[in-house]
Amino acid sequence: MKQETEEQQDFVKDITKMSDDFDRWYTDVVRKAELADWSGVRGMMVVRPYGWAMWEAITRAFDDMIKESGHENWAFPLLIPRSYLMKEAEHVEGFAPEVAWVTRAGGDMEELEEPLAVRPTSETIIGALIKRYIQSHRDLPKLTNQWNSVVRWEMRSRLFLRSREFWWQEGHTFHASGQEAMDETQLILDYYRSIAEDWLAVPVLSGKKSPAETFPGAVYTLTVEGLMRDGLALQMGTSHYFGQNFARAYDISFSNTENERELCHSTSWGISTRLVGALVMAHGDDSGLLVPPKVAPIQVVVVPIFRDAESRSKVEGFIDGWARQLKAAGIRHRIDWRDERPGDKYAHWELKGVPLRLNVGARDVDAGQVELVDRLSRERRPLPVTGIADRLQTELTAYQSKLFARAQEFQRQNTFELSTLDEVVAHFRERAGFVWATWCGDAECEAKIKAAAGGVTIRTLDPDEKATGKCLVCGKPAKYRVSLAKAY
Amino acid sequence: MKQETEEQQDFVKDITKMSDDFDRWYTDVVRKAELADWSGVRGMMVVRPYGWAMWEAITRAFDDMIKESGHENWAFPLLIPRSYLMKEAEHVEGFAPEVAWVTRAGGDMEELEEPLAVRPTSETIIGALIKRYIQSHRDLPKLTNQWNSVVRWEMRSRLFLRSREFWWQEGHTFHASGQEAMDETQLILDYYRSIAEDWLAVPVLSGKKSPAETFPGAVYTLTVEGLMRDGLALQMGTSHYFGQNFARAYDISFSNTENERELCHSTSWGISTRLVGALVMAHGDDSGLLVPPKVAPIQVVVVPIFRDAESRSKVEGFIDGWARQLKAAGIRHRIDWRDERPGDKYAHWELKGVPLRLNVGARDVDAGQVELVDRLSRERRPLPVTGIADRLQTELTAYQSKLFARAQEFQRQNTFELSTLDEVVAHFRERAGFVWATWCGDAECEAKIKAAAGGVTIRTLDPDEKATGKCLVCGKPAKYRVSLAKAY
Q1: pLDDT of B174-198, one tens digit each?
Q2: The domain containing residue A461 runs over which residues?
Q3: Which residues pair with A212 in a beta bridge?
Q4: CA dihedral for A203, A206, A212, A215, sign (positive or negative)
Q5: Do B153 and A79 touch (CB under 8 A)?
Q6: Alpha carbon distance A54, A324 (integer Å)
Q7: CB contact (8 A) between residue B99 and residue A105
């Protein structure tokens, strides 16, 4: 085995370089790292185990958060009668272009009396159902969630980011007061920020959406937005406050403490498998993925190195000696005994973005250590096997922090302050990133930004700072400090 | 508060008695214990949190089992092109009458070129896809699973047991040899038996299905069947061996060690939300549910009893003193501070089948104890609060065993040995249960049993015993010892 030579080369082959073509790089990595593929059914993807395991880690984390604060999981029907969908005008207008319709069923493919929508989101069916379970103020708040997939008939497809089916959670909550519902909307946004930053190691901007970007039927929408390595923003989760819009359309009311009927105030919110795309695009490099340890299906890979049966047996006995400690400590690991050359294995696990690799050869056995290589620095360091599980836990925690710090630094370097539309247009002609500017709040000015700067949109309204100065477009007094970006 | 009187009465009102009308009892319990409801969309149910939490406990248990043995979760598309479905003749014939079809999509509800089935099960789409990921014998076995919902256009609906949408896992595996695939089919059946018996406390018969009851496209089907309290059998999980049928239809092949192409051998298997219906019908009584602790959303409910603010405060301080121990021990519990009378609370939690109830009044505080009532015996026993978490764990384990023992005893008392069709017909005219008999293996005789005994079917072929004697119908030498029952 030509071990030395291989170890010195760049291991990953056959993926487009990120710097050459980010979009092709993304698709190459998603497919070759075995996260997902197109399915043969137009616009619909198949998520493979390595990608699905990341989503499972996210679902577990978020499910724990919402259960801790009293939310409960339900299962609402997949198919929604057309008449339910029609009740909230703005909502139906927003979703109608994306709906897939079940029109026939049974042995003779008989036509249904009423077409059924494959849910694009469930506000309407939940609205129609939940009123059964809400009579009195004592039944509130009603904090519902479900884990499911939804179908939206998108025309432009992109694995994880935009496909005709995606997997998500959708929370729908009902409250006795507007304030309580607004607090809920914010609570969930905080959870989403935690999922993005603490779990996916992606720093986010958060805040309200502009009216043009608000969810159909909502009073306002809150969002968390991450920055991908091509400088484009990605919406990573949204939380909507509906006021009484849906309660009015579906007659969801309760008797208050004075025994009068009142309409509920409601919210909805979701994160989806899009987050797997986010972690690819926020951390990847020319060699492939870098997966944050907290959501990594494999946190540590062990690559045994040997020349003959004797050294193999020596290395195997050594690894057996401590591998069960990793299992006992809950470290997700894999020992790669496949019949391949070490260099090919290194390339394979680098492409898949496994945070830590342990190379173990006969000399390591003699020294009672392994060679630790992390995916980010790629430096080789000896790691004693005494107390190896604890040491690896420490390394994984440090690695998670380093990935986050790197992404924060990237975000910092790609965030700018500009004052006029001309500056914004010039900026986005040259580069991308987040641009902070001030805006009067007028929809016309918002449309002008989008038109002039090639699709640049307002991503968030800064929740913390009152705007001073003038609107970047019309020059009138500004109402909001806003972040602008090109987005997926 | 008229505490004494209330405690002496039968707490649960407003559900039909099991002995009066089992079917109405079932629906009453499922709805009033807040497990599920019909949704307003014909034949489709909504699963409420208390029911869904039971399903989540089952999914967690089973997911752990299959992951431990190397199975991986995927997400395959919801919609399946008609042409995919058509490739395996027996399979399409079996499912065609139950398919819901998406025929239109998008803003103008434009007609699709090819109708898409809402998956009734995923053999066909997985068959069409998986061949990409199987090249060589080194890619085998391929052990896939997914958690999802499926749609089957059933005409007769019943909550959990038969609805147009249900939630399940579907495993689909691909192997290099028939033996390995058959071993897989059996391994999963053993898991299903464990879910039924160790988790749901429902003893099951297991074995092969007769050809008439075999899954469309399978070589054979294995099943686990439980006995409900009305004496009817319920199929609680099935595991199918396909031989090379699906591999042939979808061209799923691999190069073997001699570098020749060979067709894979495949399996599929599933358990569904039907299991929630099973635990209702296998353990319930006139007062409602009895939920096995292992899947109980609430294992212990605490009912504080007090007359005035002073005694309330005393009781509250006492409960606060040890309640966090329950949380730390992972005991799923609820302290019922609702503004209701104790008797109404008892009724509520009995209906919901919470295994253990702790009544806590002022005198209990003085004695440093609580009053323990289990849902099965309803006997009141003092339980010291010293080490209460450990004591409750012991009680929960014992309760799980008692429920299982009771169900075993019920099964034993409702299992019979008969020799002739006349006896079978006479038996099922009077009562239900499992009947063991011997059968020649002929489909005609099987059909005669069903016709003569009012829908009685062969549930399992005994895997352990070779049949001796004669076929109960034709009198020719018997090939199989079979269990017969009326079934859901």
Answers
A1: 999 999 999 999 999 999 999 999 9
A2: 415-485
A3: none
A4: positive
A5: no
A6: 23
A7: yes
